[in-house]
Automatic annotation (TrEMBL):
Record protein name field: Ribose-5-phosphate isomerase A
Record keywords, A-Z: Isomerase
Pathways involved: Carbohydrate degradation; pentose phosphate pathway; D-ribose 5-phosphate from D-ribulose 5-phosphate (non-oxidative stage): step 1/1
Record-annotated membrane-spanning stretches: none
EC number(s) from the headed UniProt entry: 5.3.1.6
Residue positions binding substrate: 29-32, 81-84, 94-97, 121
Pfam name, any one: Rib_5-P_isom_A
Amino acid sequence: MRSPDDDKRLAAEAAVAEVGEGMLIGLGTGSTAAHAIQAIGRAGMAIDAVATSEASARLARQVGIKVVDFARVDRVDLTIDGVDEIDDGFRAIKGAGGAMLREKIVAAASDRMVVIADGSKKVAAIGGARLPVEVVPFATAYVSAALRSMFCAVHLRDGGKTLTDNGNIVLDCMGAHTDDWDRLAGWLSTVPGVVGHGLFLSEIDAAYISALGIVTRLER
Ligand code: 5RP
């Protein structure tokens, strides 16, 4: 019996075929990205990597990948990461794992970003998934009110107990529907206290989606 995890693994393994010797690879975060990290480790290629989370860095080291400090890196060849939702226009929501800020930074530094997912993540229109917003703890109440007044119902993830790798809290916006995601992303970036969000509107170059064991590669 095939499970969504089999499709995550198949999508990850297909994307890992893009990894070449000598590349600097950006490692995403989450269960699908973990399959990619394991596949890169198994391939035993001479690559260096930067990680988008402490969890991915730990896993990468466990499987024998050399992880370098991203603070010393200004350019990445290829990043492979997961998504929570992606539409036909390569607009995506990420951050269920809370790593969206580092994921966005590493994606911005990457010559190419490919995402990997099981078929349930491919949607006609993004907005069904919660939209995570990373916020400096000092600004929790202020940003919550700003998000509520503008566009969505707000939940403080884990009641504020779980912090991101950057020491910040995550506000999850539910029901964030808009006709203009670019405008919403632009507005989010202007709210003091917001340091990141899970809207990836222009970063993604290609997607490997596996449904019922069949992997489809979509190129922007
Ligand atoms: C973490 C992410 C993940 O890539 C995204 O949530 C997908 O996770 P999974 O592969 O476990 O379904 O953005 O911040």
